[in-house]
Amino acid sequence: MSMNIQEQVGEHRAAALLGLPMTEIRRFSQISGLGHLEKGDRGEQVVFTYEELRRLLESLPSLLLTPPGPGCLPTGTRGLPLFGFEGSS
Fold first, then answer.
1. Can you name the CATH fold of 9-63?
2. How confident is the model at residue 76, as a pLDDT?
């Protein structure tokens, strides 16, 4: 699929546009299946079309509720999170 470079948004720009850390952009890309990896002079990066970026933005509320995976939250001695989310007991 040949695409004009102006029709694509790299992960650095996507993170800046959405106000999110780049690690979250990559995680949301993996969860949602949006974007694709491209190899360039600086290594691999996730690249989005503007349509994919729009769809990612629309799905952010549900993606933000997706836990990042085991070991991502600081835990106490019993393996329980040291802090809870507001409204949880």
1. Multidrug-efflux Transporter Regulator; Chain: A; Domain 2 (1.10.1660)
2. 46
